[in-house]
Write a structure and sequence with these properties.
By secondary structure, the chain is an alpha+beta fold. It contains 13 helices and 21 strands. It has helices spanning about 15-20, 30-35, 45-50, 65-80, 110-115, 125-140, 155-165, 190-200, 210-225, 265-270, 315-330, 350-360, 375-380; strands at about 5, 10, 80-85, 90-95, 100-110, 120, 140-145, 145-150, 170-175, 180-185, 205-210, 235-240, 250, 250-255, 275-280, 290-295, 295-300, 340-345, 365-370, 390-395, 405. The strands form five sheets. Strands 1, 4, 5, 6, 8, 9, 10, 11 and 12 form a nine-stranded mixed β-sheet that branches. Strands 15-17-16-19-14-18 form a six-stranded antiparallel β-sheet, with helices on both faces. It has a two-stranded antiparallel ribbon with strand order 2-3.
C-alpha cells in the first residue's frame, strides 16, 4: 500500500501565485537564481536560495544563509500573502508543456515508507546536498521543495482527478518557460476516495527529488534529537503522477577534450572496437544508438549489447556509452566526479550540444535516446541504482505553490 495524507498547505494567495512560484532550487546556480529573482521580491527563490540576498561570495552553507531563509519566509508569508488552508486537503496539480500534459496528486507521503523502501529510489544522493536541505527544513520549519513521484496509475484515482479538474482551479498560471501550472483543491469525500485509491498502489517511485526525500527523513531525526519532535515531520510533500503520463527526456553528455586524440583517430578507435559509426541524425530514434557531434558533424554510433547477466542499470545506453566509449577512448573516469564531463538536459535540445562544441567549450557531444519510465521502475524494483544523470524529467514542478510546515 501507499499511504497518502491530506494536509494544511501553506500557499500563496491566488493573486500572487504567479509572482511567488519559482523554478526548483536545484536547477539553477546562485548567479542564475539571483538574476531570476532580482526584480521579483515575492519569488520563492528568496526562501529556497536565500544566499541571493546576501553579499556575493557568501559561502552557500553559511549559517547566515539559513537565518536569511527563515527571515525571508516570514516576510513572504506577510507580503504575498501566504495563506494556510484550514482543512487538510489534497491537490490535483496539472503541468502542460506544449502538447504534453500530466496531472498528479499533491499530498503528504510517509517517511517510514521511504525508509522501508516502499517508496523506491533509483539514484544515490550526495551528503553535502542532503546536509543543506536538512538544515533548511529544520531551521525554516518547512519543506519547501516538492518531491516528484510516479506510480502505476489506477482507475480509481484517475476518476476523481477527472471530476475535480472540471471545476475552476485554485491556480492557473503560465510560467516564463511557457509551462502552464494548474492546481485544484481536493477535500471531503473526493480526498478520501483518492486516499483509498493510493492504499491499493503497491509502490511509489521517486522520479525527481531524491535529495528532498532523504533530507525530509533526516530532518525528522534531527528535530527529534533537538527535542522538537513533531508528527508533521513524519511525512514529506510530493506530487505523484501516473506512470503513463510522465515524460522523460534524454540527459546528454559533453566531454571537454579528446584525451590526446584527433577526431579521425577517435572515430577509428570506436570502429576498431566493433561498433558501427555512420553519418546520422542529431537525435537517435531507438535505444542502442547514440548520436555523436564531433568536428562539426553528427555521427550515429551503434552501441554493443550489454554483457549477459548485467544488472538492469548496466544495460542502459548511458552506462554502455560510459563503459564502451567514454572510459576507454576519452578517459572519462567516474562521471560523478570527473571534471571533464558535463551533462546537458534534453530540454535544451541538440542545438545546445552543437553550440558547446562549436564554441570550443567541449570537444565532443553525445545525444542519447531517453530512458523509459518502465526502465526506471524495473531498476528501482530490483533495488539497483541508475547511472548518474540518466533522466531529465520535464516539465518540472514549481516551488512555492504548496509548502508543508513541520
Amino acid at each position: 500500500m501507499a499511504e497518502l495524507l491530506p494536509f494544511r498547505a501553506l500557499r500563496p494567495a491566488p493573486s500572487a501565485a504567479h509572482r511567488v512560484a519559482s523554478v526548483p532550487y536545484d536547477v539553477v546556480n546562485t548567479d542564475e537564481a539571483r538574476a531570476l529573482a532580482a526584480a521579483e521580491p515575492l519569488s520563492f527563490l528568496h526562501v529556497t536560495r536565500s544566499e541571493i540576498d546576501l553579499p556575493s561570495g557568501t559561502p552557500p552553507y553559511d549559517a547566515s544563509v539559513y537565518a536569511r531563509a527563515v527571515e525571508n519566509l516570514a516576510t513572504l508569508r506577510q507580503s504575498a500573502p501566504m495563506i494556510r488552508d484550514e482543512e487538510p486537503s489534497l491537490y490535483a496539480y496539472r503541468l502542460r508543456m506544449r502538447h504534453h500534459e500530466q496531472t498528479g496528486i499533491a499530498g503528504l507521503f510517509s517517511v517510514d515508507e521511504y525508509e522501508q523502501g516502499l517508496i523506491k529510489k533509483h539514484e544515490k544522493t550526495r551528503k553535502d546536498k542532503e546536509d543543506d536541505r536538512t538544515r533548511h527544513i529544520v531551521e525554516t520549519g518547512a519543506q519547501t521543495g516538492v518531491v516528484f513521484l510516479t506510480y502505476r496509475g489506477t482507475d480509481a484515482v484517475d476518476a476523481v482527478v477527472a471530476r475535480v479538474t472540471k471545476q475552476p482551479p485554485l491556480y492557473d498560471i503560465t510560467a516564463p518557460d511557457e509551462v502552464r501550472h494548474q492546481v485544484w483543491q481536493i477535500t471531503g469525500a473526493d480526498a478520501q476516495a483518492v486516499v483509498r485509491g493510493f492504499a491499493a498502489v503497491p509502490a511509489l517511485y521517486i522520479a525527481d527529488g531524491h535529495h528532498r526525500a532523504a533530507s525530509a527523513a533526516r530532518a525528522r531525526q534531527d528535530l527529534a534529537k533537538a527535542g522538537r519532535p513533531t508528527s508533521d515531520a513524519n511525512a514529506f510533500i510530493a506530487v505523484a503522477f501516473p506512470d503513463a503520463s510522465v515524460q522523460i527526456l534524454s540527459y546528454n553528455r559533453t566531454v571537454k577534450d579528446l584525451a590526446g586524440q584527433t577526431p579521425d583517430t577517435l572515430l577509428a578507435a570506436i570502429r576498431a572496437s566493433g561498433m558501427t559509426v555512420t553519418s546520422g541524425p542529431a537525435v537517435p530514434v531507438a535505444p542502442g544508438r547514440v548520436s555523436m557531434y564531433l568536428d562539426g558533424q553528427w555521427h550515429l554510433v551503434t552501441l554493443p549489447a550489454a554483457t549477459a547477466g548485467a544488472s538492469p542499470g548496466d544495460t542502459l545506453d548511458v552506462e554502455v556509452l560510459q563503459q564502451r566509449v567514454l572510459q576507454p577512448f576519452l578517459k572519462v573516469g567516474d562521471p560523478r566526479t570527473d571534471k571533464r564531463i558535463d551533462f546537458v538536459g534534453g530540454i535544451r535540445g541538440t542545438t545546445e550540444l552543437e553550440r558547446l562544441v562549436n564554441s570550443g567549450k567541449a570537444a565532443v557531444a553525445f545525444s542519447l535516446y531517453p530512458v523509459s519510465v518502465a526502465d526506471l521502475m524495473a531498476i528501482a524494483d530490483a533495488g539497483a541504482i541508475m547511472p548518474p544523470k540518466s533522466t531529465w524529467f520535464e516539465p518540472k514542478l514549481r516551488d512555492g505553490l504548496l509548502v508543508h510546515l513541520v
